[in-house]
TrEMBL record:
Origin superkingdom: Bacteria
NCBIfam families found in the cross-reference section: PRK09184.1 (NF006617)
InterPro entries cross-referenced by the UniProt entry: ACP-like_sf (IPR036736), PP-bd_ACP (IPR009081)
N-terminal signal peptide: none
PROSITE patterns: CARRIER
High-level lineage: Bacteria, Pseudomonadati, Pseudomonadota, Betaproteobacteria, Rhodocyclales
Source organism of this protein record: Uliginosibacterium paludis
Matching SUPFAM superfamilies: ACP-like (SSF47336)
Protein name, UniProt field: Phosphopantetheine-binding protein
Carrier domain location: 10-92
Amino acid sequence: MTQSPAAADPALEQEVAAMIVEALNLDVAASSIEAEAPLFGDEGLGLDSIDILEVALVISKRYGFQLKADSDDNFRIFSSLRSLAAHIAAHRTK
């Protein structure tokens, strides 16, 4: 069953936020990452493409599915914490 951002899972969002902070050694509290704020670019968390690759690697290890670097969906998937958590909820095998 595919989970839409409207059916967000706050617990999973916080889990993913904590994973991002840990994986990238960010100097922010996971709880301070807003669910709808952009993850990359000049706004929001400000991640770059290398950060996204590192997060994708951790996701594949922790949740059991691969995010492809050349996927056209990556912009949507990584647009916010909420969209990333929803994608994980829909595709995880672990």
